[in-house]
C-alpha cells in the first residue's frame, strides 16, 4: 500500500510542469466546452495517445521505433511500458492547439473589456480547424521532442530514445509524420465529442470568465516558452534558435490576423454564433463596427 501511495505521489511531484499545464487545460476546456465534454475528451484523448505510443514502441507505427527507459518505474505510474504523464500531455496539447486554430478562424468581438470569439458549431467542427489544429500540435512537438530527448541534462531525466539517430536534433522525420496523424485523430475526436448534447441550454461548467477565449492559446504559448527556456538552459542554443525561427511567423501571423478581424464581423456571423450559443456574452453590448454591418 505504501509503495502504491509513493508511486501516486511521485507521478505528480516528478512532473509538476505537466500537471500545471493540465490544470490550465481543465480550466480553459471546462469554461469553453463544459465538464461533460472535457471529461469525455480527457479520457478518450488519453486512450488514443496511449494506443499510439504503445503501438510505436512495439511495432514502430506511427512515430517510428523508439523506446522508454524505465528507470522511474518504481517512482511514478507506468502503464504497459508507457509513462502515464506522457500520454496525458497529448490531451492538453490537442486542446490548446484546437483553441489556437479557433482564434485564427473565428470572428472576434469586444464586449465590455472582454474578447469573445464568434465561433459556431460549424467552425468548431470544420476541416479547417482539424487541419490547422493538427499542424499547430505538430509544431509544438518540433520544439518539445528534441529537448525531451536531452532529458538527462535537465530535471526530466533520460526517459526515452530512438533506435536510430534522426535527422532533426536526433529526432527522425517519422516521428513528426506520426504526430500529425495522431494529432489530426485527436482533434477529430474532440470535434466528435463536441457534437454531444449540442442543445440550447448552457452546459454545466461553461462560463463567461474574462478573456476566456484566450486561455487555450495562452497555454499553447506557455508550453512553447517553457520548452524553449529549457532548451537554452541546457546550452542547446542552435536548437533553441531554430525553435524561435519556426514559431516567429505563425505567432506573428496569428496576432496580426486576430488584430485585423477584431470587431470586423458581419451581423450574420454574430447571429449564427448566438443561434448556436445563446448564453454567449457576445449577446450584450454593441461590440463595435461589425455590429452595424
The gist of it:
It comes from Geomonas anaerohicana. With 293 residues, the protein is mainly alpha-helical.
List the helices and strands and how they pair.
Layout: H1 2-13, H2 16-33, H3 35-59, E1 66-68, E2 78-79, E3 82-83, H4 84-105, E4 108-111, E5 114-117, H5 121-124, H6 127-149, E6 160-162, H7 173-194, H8 215-233, H9 237-261, H10 267-276
Keywords: Membrane, Transmembrane, Transmembrane helix
Transmembrane segments: 17-35, 47-68, 88-106, 127-144, 176-193, 214-234, 240-258
Pfam families: Caroten_synth
Describe the 3D structure.
With 293 residues, this protein is mainly alpha-helical. Helix 2 packs across helix 3 and helix 4 crosses helix 7. It is globular and about 55 Å long. The N and C termini lie far apart (65 Å). The mean pLDDT is 91.
How many helices? The count is 10
In percent, how much strand structure appears in the residues? Answer: 5-15%
In which order are the strands of the major sheet placed? 1-6
Low-confidence segments, given as residue ranges, are: none
Helix content: 55-70%
Which sheet architecture does the biggest sheet show?
2 strands, antiparallel
Indicate the mean pLDDT.
Answer: 91
Instruction: Give me the Rg, rounded.
Output: 20 Å
SS-derived structural category: mainly alpha
Q: What string gives the helices and strands in order? A: HHHEEEHEEHHEHHHH
Gap between N and C termini: 65 Å
Overall form: globular
- Tally of strands: 6
Transmembrane segments: 17-35, 47-68, 88-106, 127-144, 176-193, 214-234, 240-258
Protein name: Carotenoid biosynthesis protein
InterPro entries: CruF-like
Keywords: Membrane, Transmembrane, Transmembrane helix
Amino acid at each position: 500500500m505504501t509503495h502504491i501511495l509513493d508511486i501516486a505521489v511521485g507521478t505528480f511531484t516528478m512532473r509538476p510542469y505537466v500537471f500545471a499545464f493540465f490544470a490550465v487545460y481543465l480550466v480553459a476546456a471546462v469554461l469553453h466546452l463544459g465538464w461533460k465534454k472535457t471529461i469525455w475528451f480527457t479520457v478518450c484523448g488519453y486512450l488514443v495517445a496511449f494506443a499510439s505510443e504503445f503501438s510505436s514502441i512495439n511495432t514502430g507505427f506511427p512515430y517510428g521505433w523508439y523506446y522508454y527507459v524505465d528507470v522511474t518505474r518504481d517512482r511514478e505510474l507506468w502503464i504497459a511500458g508507457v509513462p502515464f504523464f506522457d500520454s496525458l500531455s497529448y490531451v492538453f496539447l490537442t486542446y490548446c492547439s484546437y483553441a489556437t486554430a479557433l482564434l485564427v478562424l473565428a470572428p472576434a468581438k469586444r464586449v465590455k473589456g472582454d474578447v469573445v470569439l464568434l465561433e459556431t458549431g460549424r467552425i468548431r467542427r470544420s476541416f479547417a480547424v482539424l487541419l490547422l489544429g493538427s499542424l499547430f500540435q505538430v509544431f509544438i512537438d518540433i520544439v518539445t521532442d528534441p529537448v525531451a530527448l536531452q532529458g538527462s541534462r535537465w530535471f526530466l531525466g533520460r526517459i526515452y530514445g530512438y533506435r536510430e539517430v534522426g535527422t532533426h536534433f536526433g529526432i527522425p522525420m517519422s516521428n513528426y509524420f506520426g504526430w500529425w496523424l495522431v494529432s489530426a485523430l485527436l482533434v477529430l475526436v474532440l470535434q466528435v465529442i463536441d457534437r454531444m448534447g449540442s442543445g440550447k441550454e448552457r452546459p454545466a461548467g461553461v462560463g463567461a470568465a474574462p478573456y476566456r477565449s484566450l486561455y487555450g492559446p495562452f497555454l499553447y504559448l506557455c508550453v512553447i516558452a517553457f520548452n524553449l527556456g529549457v532548451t537554452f538552459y541546457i546550452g542547446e542554443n542552435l536548437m533553441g534558435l531554430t525553435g524561435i525561427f519556426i514559431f516567429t511567423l505563425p505567432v506573428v501571423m496569428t496576432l496580426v490576423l486576430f488584430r485585423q478581424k477584431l470587431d470586423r464581423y458581419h451581423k450574420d456571423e454574430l447571429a449564427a454564433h448566438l443561434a448556436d450559443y445563446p448564453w454567449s456574452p457576445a449577446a450584450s453590448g454593441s461590440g463595435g463596427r461589425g455590429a452595424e454591418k
